[in-house]
Amino acid sequence: MTSDELRSTEEVLQKSKAPSKQHSAFRKVRGRSHVFEDDCNRGHAYRLNDLSRRTLSLGRAGADETSSSGRTTSPAPSVYSFNSSDERQVLRQAYGRMVNSQIESYFLPADYEEHRRLDLQHQVYTMALGALYPAAPLVRWALRPRHDRRPAIMDVGAGSGSWAIDMAREFPYCDVVGVDLVPPRVTGQLPENCRFEIDDANLGFSHYRQTYDVVHARAVSMGVRDFPALLRELADTLRPGGMLVLGDGEMQLYDEERQPLQYSERDASWTQRVFFAAYNAMRNRAGGSIDSHSMSPTWLRAVESLTEVGWDKVFIPVGPWIYANEKEKHLAEMLRANTLAFISGLGPLLLSEGYLKESVEKMQHEASLEIRDLRVHIYTRWSFAWAMKRF
Ligand SMILES: C[S@@+](CC[C@H](N)C(=O)[O-])C[C@H]1O[C@@H](n2cnc3c(N)ncnc32)[C@H](O)[C@@H]1O
């Protein structure tokens, strides 16, 4: 790798790590609500509700829109935040990283480092698509301004919150809610029209029937017990004409000809080994949902209330071993940085499967060297699928 390539990869990593602003202080105000004071000195309430269902709602201070199920009943604009005692309820330590403490199947980290990786991965998705979403004309039409109400968007498995926040910025006249097992660690100022809820998508969304114009779920499959059932739930949360948008990166790696790399114990690169081990560990935890990237169009067609099913796939090289222009080079560099951080976050998943610490560290170390030095010429494939709610 040339020094130029090294520098640009480092820059990408640095940028993804650099916190712009950190949330700082908070104080308890009443009952189990907390007011959080961010560095803009805005106070926001954080409600912990219905812990028996392990469901937490994050709503604006003073807004009283919490249902008996403990979840907010409208997509009203609001913001939130998060403190250390809340953290103990939704996160736990595992093998040296923080993971969610709500479900066992999702076992990638849920800490600051992972959220900065997700920020970077969000840039990869966005640059690869050239937009925040596929099927742009349909999504924009679903979110057109209306006289009678504000259009509403839900992001399921919102992660670091970057998609929800970017959508709130692109569509300032819409309300956006991000839902996840853990709170996002937002480093900048949240748009007023964006808020977050802590919730498990496996519990369903009966409280949000016919509420949203766009529902987005990207890279959540490992945490989903029954993907087709989730799609039916999400379809029910859509208004007629609303769009359901899915995205996922595949664990299958592709060769220089964009053909699936076959796994053979004898010839596999370290990168293949670590991806293969991670895929099997994910499958053991999540079952068939993990293959949602290839099954989504079929599953979407099976939902009677959905129509206009479409899908798309994008190949991106891991590192700039091939590129036609500066944009492609930058995308490949970002994906390389993301892949290195992803591999480094696989510790808890692989160790919990019974791999020896030395084996995991060896795989991670060797695979990272291969990728950094562009010794493996690998493509990854990113899948998108969408459908419209029938009128
Ligand atoms: C790989 S991250 C992707 C984050 C985000 N969608 C993105 O593309 O940047 C997966 C996220 O889904 C969340 N998640 C997984 N299972 C979930 C579930 N059952 N309910 C809610 N969130 C879930 C995880 O906590 C994690 O933040």
From TrEMBL:
Q: Polar residues bias: where?
A: 65-83
What Pfam families does the record point to?
Methyltransf_23 (PF13489)
Gene3D superfamilies per the record?
Vaccinia Virus protein VP39
The record's annotation in SUPFAM superfamilies points to:
S-adenosyl-L-methionine-dependent methyltransferases (SSF53335)
Presence of the UniProt keyword Phosphoprotein in the record? no
The question of whether Transferase is a record keyword is answered with yes
- The biased composition feature labelled Basic and acidic residues covers 1-14
Keywords assigned by UniProt, alphabetized: Methyltransferase, Transferase
Task: List, in alphabetical order, the GO biological process terms annotated in this UniProt record.
Answer: methylation
**Which spans does this entry mark as compositional bias, Basic residues?**
18-27
A GO molecular function annotation here is: methyltransferase activity
Region (Disordered) location: 1-27, 59-83
PANTHER family, alphabetically? 2-METHOXY-6-POLYPRENYL-1,4-BENZOQUINOL METHYLASE, MITOCHONDRIAL (PTHR43591:SF24), METHYLTRANSFERASE (PTHR43591)
Q: What is the protein name stated in its UniProt record?
A: S-adenosyl-L-methionine-dependent methyltransferase
> What organism is the protein native to?
Phanerochaete sordida
